[in-house]
Amino acid sequence: MATITLPAGLLAREVYREDASAIMTLANQADMAEIGQGDTTVEDVYELWDKEKVDLTRNACAITTSGEIIGYTGVAVTRQGIMLDVHTNVHPAYQHLPIASYLLQFANERTLALLAAYPETPHRLYSWSFIPTKTAVLVEDGFTIEESDYEMEIILDQEPEAPRPLSGIIIRPFVQGQEEEAVYAVIAEAFPDIDGKPYKAYADWYENVFVKTKSFDPSMLYVAVAGTQLVGTISCRIYPENAEGFIWQVAIRRAWRQQGIAQQLLRTAFSTYYQRGMRRILLTVNATNATGAHQLYTSVGMHKYVQFDSLAKVF
């Protein structure tokens, strides 16, 4: 395959942490051009870099013209394979140039180098796309769509409906340092009903939630308790700089479903978000989810905002 080169006037360089704001802007420009709204924050960029330990010097690339970043990509080794940074983008005004091809060439080369250095890593390059144009570019490069999800939203332009009491059920904040394993047990029972796959190990879940994810707020992890048994949970992330929140995980034990618990957990979260000044609340749900999740989220006022795809390429 021929080596792709950049047109005159464009420069490829390594990435610096100081570029986070420009990469945020680039991501939002790409989203605005296609779906009319950009949600990326600078904290999102930093969080992914830090969480996945992206080596910006060797494994990330910025394309610039006259000092402006108009293209970006990065890769990192994870337990699932090599991650292609979800903020990989090309400025809409320059998409007619071979910038995306150059960035994917860089990502593929670095993927091969990382797989050689870490041979135990699953031999796949994976990422996500919120916009059809980006999905098409990745598919053309050899990626396949593994699954699709919907991002749903609700705008809290007025005080949301208060949580309703449930007979025999108490909804309260979880007790940090005491109930992590009980929360995990609920999630580990519930989530395989979505995709049929065993849930991740407790240590991996704990690290991802409590250690790596800075936007997670432990004060907004709520549990539903029946007697002494924890039967449901909801965990939330916060983005106060954008007045936004993200419902991260909602899980109910099988024997306790269809009793309104999930609705009241959601209403509890919405009320707290509203009190804290966060007005736009998002969540994601698998497009083929057969647990009734779509109907649940619609019942509390949420609606589909955009579809995003999970893609991977095998090496």
UniProtKB/TrEMBL annotation:
<dbReference type="InterPro" id="IPR050832">
    <property type="entry name" value="Bact_Acetyltransf"/>
</dbReference>
<dbReference type="InterPro" id="IPR016181">
    <property type="entry name" value="Acyl_CoA_acyltransferase"/>
</dbReference>
<feature type="domain" description="N-acetyltransferase">
    <location>
        <begin position="10"/>
        <end position="165"/>
    </location>
</feature>
<keyword id="KW-0012">Acyltransferase</keyword>
<feature type="domain" description="N-acetyltransferase">
    <location>
        <begin position="169"/>
        <end position="315"/>
    </location>
</feature>
<dbReference type="Pfam" id="PF00583">
    <property type="entry name" value="Acetyltransf_1"/>
</dbReference>
<keyword id="KW-0808">Transferase</keyword>
<protein>
    <recommendedName>
        <fullName>N-acetyltransferase domain-containing protein</fullName>
    </recommendedName>
</protein>
<dbReference type="GO" id="GO:0016747">
    <property type="term" value="F:acyltransferase activity, transferring groups other than amino-acyl groups"/>
</dbReference>
<dbReference type="InterPro" id="IPR000182">
    <property type="entry name" value="GNAT_dom"/>
</dbReference>
